[in-house]
Design a protein that fits this description.
Order of helices and strands: HHEHEHHHEEHHEHHEHE
Largest sheet: 7 strands, mixed
Low-confidence stretches: 1-8, 14-34, 213-219
Strand order of the largest sheet: 3-2-1-4-5-6-7
Structural class: alpha/beta
Amino acid sequence: MSPSRYRMLTATSVLLALAAGVVVGAGASGMRASGAPSSGAELAERVAELEAERAELRERLGGAEEFGASVGPLVVRDVLAGRSVLLVTTGDVEDAEASSVAALVEAAGGRVAGGVGMTEDLVDGRRADQLRELARRLLPAGASLPAGGDPGSLVGALLASLLVVDPVTGEPRSEEVEREVALTALAEAGFLRASEPVPPAELVLVLTGAGVGTAAGDATGGTVRERSQLLRAVVSELARVGRGVVVAGPPASADADGLVGVVRTDAGTRTRVSTVDTLGGGEGSAVAVLALRAAWEGEVGHFGGAGNAGRRSPLAPGT
């Protein structure tokens, strides 16, 4: 990718960051400048002014996001040429978001080998024993299980054996019939949603949302953090045997309880799984695709605008 295309992505990042900063700062600075209103009429007038400012800033931010979306295909052109990508989504990701990212993978010259959706049942702690038993029973011949018996690691090892090619030989780790039987069983149990068929891929892109659940574990089958920890174990196993795994989510996913945040703070996972926290903005999908390219080249990084990110975006290939 040329340096000019990388500068284009950088410009998009700056536009989005500035727009977001102005949205946050405008209301606070306005209130400090004007002080407390002295009457109901003044209060109503100030509220109307702030509403107008917010509408204008939303329009500006929307323009920056539109610009980012329009230049995304140019920024990522050919960076995944010839590479196959497995697209994995968590239960809080909209289909439209996944389709948009998949289209950008194709625009980058990559091929989306298939899609797998991890459902709310998969992260429901009340079904952990059933998930653990099913993962053990469906493991292909010759595949090994991780030492730990937690359901996240077990289902991650199962999915890795089914859907990630051997990075040395480029060959599948399982037979087609084994993949079909296992994915069908997991889908019938309510743990996965899978497109048909799902051949193994070289790279894995995991899309996540802001996180689901509450602190009331008994009512929801687990807290947000407990669910994120299970998903972290899944992606860690995918990365353990594959060439590269990227987890991408919106800014809130980088919080302490979100999947991106949990990956970034786990010492064993952060060194082999890349993350992106700008999904949903104009630049997010392009950054995720660039992170996949970096992963293919052996670079693990944490990209975005959160405090636990390393930098805004991967460097362009060749720069």
